[in-house]
Amino acid sequence: MKPLIVIIGPTAIGKSAVAVQLAEKIDGEIVSADSVQVYRELNIGSAKISEDEKRGIPHHLLDIVSIKEEFSVAQYQHLAECAIGSIVARGKIPILVGGSGLYVSSILFGYKFPQHESTGRLRQQLLQEHDQKGEAGLREQLAAIDPAAVQKINRGDSRRLIRALEVYSLTGEKASLEMNQRLQRPTQKTVILGLYIERAQLYRNIELRVDAMMSRGLVNEVQQLLTDEDCAFSKALLAVGYKEIIGYLKGEYTLEFAVQLIKRNTRRFAKRQLTWFQRYQHAIWLPIDHMVGKGEVLAALMEHCAPLYRQQTHQEEEV
Fold first, then answer.
1. Are 103 and 34 in contact (CB under 8 A)?
2. What would the pLDDT profile of 253-275 be if each residue is shown by its tens digit?
3. Whole-model pTM?
């Protein structure tokens, strides 16, 4: 039963900055739960934390894979659990931080992934079916065998549709049965802290972040990636912020329209994140926009985490 602090919330709310401040106070280390920031090549569009912003706090599971490679939730789960175990073994407190719901849930609820890898032939067949029938065709196909899984997969998430069909084809088991495991009580000794602000303020934060990304050179980052054919066809470039700029570079619309698309799609993504995290029955939600300054937010975080890190300190003293 490893101690674990989890900080969740929608994009652009300031999770990373708050986590760094908390880590400084309680001698913690941060484990990222962001499905885009795992990629080394995706920096500006992923809003990856800079070295200066880390303030010397160790961060794990950032920049661990190339977009030229396949990377799964199961791989993330294994690496994150190893990182958490190593942090605890050093007498530190692990702080899991991020907005990728499936990544967070895989750690919190011990999600069991099928003990197999999809065969190349089956994966290629499903990809061809996707090209021929589109997402709607795959959704119809999955609905016939596992309607519960279809309801849990967002529109536009073809990757999870394909994965659910793979699970059924290779094991005869419904993916929805495994998805339901994520709603169980966390298997670890955890404190789950959710950050939220008024929607209008969140949307302002999102707009400011997107504008900052453009100023930092998001278009140039995407242009450089497209010069490498292995990168250009990566599924990782379907992430919000990248796919819209690719559309602009292909001449499908203006740069101004691309920026508006990023802002709109990021707002929609934030809504999905909140919907996902609100299912965590044991989360403690902090209205950070109603708190006076970051100091009060940090004080609230430490208050809720105190039993966990004090117990860890006590155990170290006994040893």
1. yes
2. 999 999 999 999 999 999 999 99
3. 0.80
